[in-house]
Structures are given as C-alpha cells and as structure tokens.
Amino acid sequence: MNWRRASSARSAGLPTLVLGAGHAGRALVGALRAAPGYGLRPVGFLDDNPRLRRAAWLPVVGRLDDVATAAKATGARAALVAIPSLSSSRIAQLIDRTLAAGLLVRHLPSFLAAVERDMRLSDLRGVQIGDLLGRDEIHVSSQRARSLIRGRRVLVTGAGGSIGAELCRQIHRFEPSALYLLDHDESNLHGLHLEITGSGVLDSNEIIIADIRDRRRLEQVFTETRPHIVFHAAAHKHLPLLERHPCEGVKTNVGGTHHLVDLAVRHGTSRFVLISTDKAADPASVLGATKRLAEIVVQAAAGGPTCMASVRFGNVLGSRGSLLSVLADQLAKDQAITITHPEVTRFFMTVEEAVGLVLEAVAMAEYAETFVLDMGDPVPIVDLVHKYAEAVHLPEVTIRFTGLRPGEKLNEKVFSDSEVRLRTAHPKVWATRTSEVPPDLPAMLTRLYAAADDNDEPATLALLQQMLPEYQRVLHPQTAAGVAGPYPDGF
Predict the structure, then answer these.
(1) Which has fewest Cβ within 10 Å: 2, 21, 209, 337?
(2) The Cα angle at residue 444 between residues 182 and 257, in degrees rounded to 5
(3) CA-CA distances (angstroms) from residue 285 to 249, 278, 401, 438?
(4) Nearest-angstrom CA–CA distance, 482 and 341
(5) Do 210 and 237 meet the contact criterion of CB atoms below 8 Å apart?
(6) How far apart are CA 305 and CA 16, in angstroms?
(7) Domains of the chain
C-alpha cells in the first residue's frame, strides 16, 4: 500500500513515525493530534508485534528495525521513540538506526513519563466516575469540620500516603494553627510539604519523621506538638503481604494505634480519628483482623477526655497501589489485566469521598462510633476494568484470572453481621457501635504484642482468632485458572 499517499498532508507538521504502538505510543499520538503546535504529524507506527495492523487510527507500517524502509514508504522525516520499557542500549540502537536513515529523531523520556504518570494517577475528572462506580460520587459536607479545625493544632500520621496526603491538603485549607505531617518516609513528606506550603526548605517543625511503633519517639512528638486533633492514617495495608507477615501487621496496625490512642488521651487531645477498612467487618485476613482490633482499641478509650472515632473505607480509586494504578501500569505495558476471580466485587470510592468522610466523622463523633460511607452496591471488578479501558480509549483488553489468595473474600461488606447500622446527621453516612469491650482486653493485648515482638507467627495468629471470634481466616481460597500474581486486593 502507498502509505505516503494515504497519509497526505491533511495538517501541518513534520511527517513522523512513532516507534512503539503500545499505550505510551498511542497516548503520544493523541497528544500530538491535540496539540499541532508541536510541529510533528504522526503518519504511522513501527512495532514488533506481528498481529498489529493499526493503532490509534494509524497504520503499523513495519517492525522497529524497518525504520529506513518505512521512512521511504511514508515520507516520514522524523521519528519518536515511544517505548519506555526498552533498555537504554536498545533505545540507543534504534536512535542510531533512525539517524542513519536520515530522520530527525526524538526520544522524549520526560514527556512519556508525564503521560505514564497521568495515566497511573488517573485524573478521575476526565473519566465518568459514576460510570465506574455504578453511582454518583458523594460529596460529604465538611463545614462542621472546618469550624473544628480552624485555629487548632492537627497531627496526621501516615501523611505521606494517599489518604494522609489528601487529608493534609484539605485540612491545610481549613486554616489550622499548625498542621503536623508525620511519616517514616522522608521523601514523601518533603514532596507533600513542598506542595502544600510552596517551600522546599526542610526547616519546619511541622515535618516529623517518626515510626508509630516507637512509643518513646511518639511521646516526644506529643509533648512538643500538643495536637488538638489527630487523624491516624499510618498502617500496613497490603493484604497478601500481611498474610505472609502477620506479626508486622500487629506491631503497626494494633500496637502503633494503641500508642497513639494512649498518648492522645494523656496529652489532652480533643478528637482522635482512626482510618480503618471495610475488611474489618467479619475479617477473613490479617489486615482485616488487625484493623478490627485497632477499632476496638479506639473504642476502649471512649468516655474519657478525648472523643474517639473510626472510619471504614472500601477500596480507594487513585490511591497508591489501587486498582486503577495497577491497571494503568498493565495497560501501559500491553499486559493482560490480572483479576483474582470473574465474580469478585469490591466497594470503591474516590480519595475525595474518603477524605470527606473522615472530616465529617471528626465533627460528628460522640461515643467512639465507626463510620461508613453509603457506597451503594459493590462493583464487579471485571465491569470496572472494561469501563476504565473504554474511558481511556482502549476498549479491547485481555483479562487473566489468577485465583483468590489467602485472606481474600469474593465479596466484601462494610458492616459485620453482628453490627447495627445507625443513622447520622448526614444522609449518606452511617455509623455503628459494636458490643462492649472485653474486660480482659489489656491482658490479651499484652500477650499479642509479646508474640508479635517474638515474631511467633503461629502464636500471633492464634491470639488474633481468640480475641476476635468473628475472624474466620481463609486458608484455602476458591481459585480460578492461572497462577496468582503479586497484585493488591482483588486484582
């Protein structure tokens, strides 16, 4: 076929070959079409996939090494290398071959990195969130929280994570007298502080490097900062990893929470909010069990000078390690999409919804309630994958089912069978209070911490099941064809 005639000058710009018809190459073509001012007009792809004939409405005119032949056939005068996964030596080889063919060559790592970043983070404003979730996005009013936060000292643990960082962004707008960012990852704290304050000078006492397992360090933090409000978002949250390392889950999710609750009460903190998970409802995993125990630790401190609350989330779209980020990575590499089971469902919410719920909870809390957003019906992950792929103009995707792994449920729920839903002042926010705290909780926690500190996994798991009768650990999950991969919950 005469590709030169087929790609005649319909628009201004240098005729350009795009090396790589994968996600990055297609995204690059879309960006160049939308911005003709770059002066490059894509006329065809080169790709080593023999099955590809067209991509992004352009022909695939040869393999990567066919650049000289393709340039003659299309009249191309420039080439763009658009395969981020290639080794530096292979990129150098392609650039040499392209230059030898007499083409202007561009390798744009910064531009491609921006494209990949935007896809991984997924600007949900560009995707119909209602289509993905099967419901409208819920905007939880935070006016009451604004009045509580303004002029007060606020401490956020896990500030470098997705939820913690978004909390800090929104709290900063409420004009607290001080906003303390606590995390053990200094690089995330640096970036967040720069974003919020516009200053990269790390001389602020509002940036705190600390591990919530370190009681003495936390004592020092509370003594120096005297926070009025604490938002506790720090946790281990990767379900499959905690199944393999249950002692680490106990040390951080239970022990770390216990340290913070005790210190909040001792130092006169007025309000304390724990970030929990829907997996704490009738837990089947170490993640769910440790977060359920963290909720009980919070509840046990009720009735004192500090108003306590917990907030359960479903899966958060757009957070680090979430479905959309894993999905975007797999699409970018033209890999099959991995899902654990064809019928698996999950509750999903956006980061904005999650943080709105936390801020509402801090204002509504009275007696150590656990708050849950009304997220509608659970979403089949298979449906969400197809809808997301269509939204980013990749309607054809290959799905591989890997099988449910230990600790994973086929379907999540936000309330335990033994919990009663209670209405709150907000029509889309529910609450629950669980049964009374066991009288032997302090002694049992002491035994649990000792087992975890000894890294005694059998004893740790046995104590978790003894303390939480509703904890039914899934040891032999229902499986589908395939081999399980190292992916987050549900996919």
Answers:
(1) 2
(2) 10
(3) 11, 11, 21, 21
(4) 10
(5) no
(6) 68
(7) 3-121 (3.40.50.720), 131-319+347-386+409-467 (3.40.50.720)
Contact 23, 56 (CB under 8 A): no
Q: Report whether 44 contacts 58 (CB < 8 A).
A: yes
Q: In angstroms, rounded to a whole number, what is the distance separating the alpha carbons of residues 444 and 447?
A: 5
CA-atom Rg of the chain in angstroms = 26
- Cα–Cα distance, 434 to 157 (Å, whole number): 25
Predicted structure pTM score: 0.71
* Side-chain half-sphere CA neighbours of 83 within 13 A: 25
Q: Which two tokens stand for residue 186?
A: 């200094």
What is the DSSP secondary-structure string of 294-313? HHHHHHHTTTSSSEEEEEEE
Residue 8: count of CB within 10 angstroms of its CB = 10
The pairing of strands 58-59 and 54-55 is antiparallel
Task: Please give the structure tokens belonging to residue 11.
Answer: 């628009």
Q: What is the pLDDT along the chain (491 residues), one digit of tens a residue?
A: 544 444 444 456 889 999 999 888 888 888 888 777 677 899 999 999 988 999 989 999 999 999 999 999 999 998 998 887 777 778 888 888 898 898 888 765 544 444 444 444 344 334 555 567 777 777 776 788 889 999 999 999 999 988 999 999 999 989 999 999 999 988 788 778 788 876 655 667 889 999 999 999 999 999 999 999 999 999 999 899 999 999 999 999 999 999 999 999 999 999 999 999 999 999 999 999 999 999 999 999 988 899 999 999 878 875 555 666 677 667 666 678 888 888 888 888 888 888 888 898 888 888 888 998 877 788 888 888 888 777 666 667 788 888 888 888 888 877 887 788 888 888 888 898 766 778 899 999 999 999 999 999 999 999 999 999 889 887 744 433 333 344 455 54
Distance between CA atoms of 406 and 439, rounded to whole angstroms? 31
User: Could you give the CA distance from residue 374 to residue 413 in angstroms, rounded to a whole number?
Assistant: 11
CA distance 311 to 431: 9
User: Which residues contact residue 256 at a Cβ distance below 8 angstroms, ignoring those fewer than 6 apart?
Assistant: 211, 212, 213, 234, 235
Strand partners, 107: 81
- Encoded amino acid at 238, one letter: H
Dist. CA 175–CA 303, nearest whole Å:
29
Sequential DSSP letters for 411-433:
B--SS-TT---EE-SSTTEEEE-
Separation of alpha carbons 367 and 364, rounded Å: 10
Residue 143 φ/ψ, nearest 5 degrees: -65, -40
Q: Work out whether the CA dihedral 436, 440, 445, 448 comes out positive or negative.
A: negative
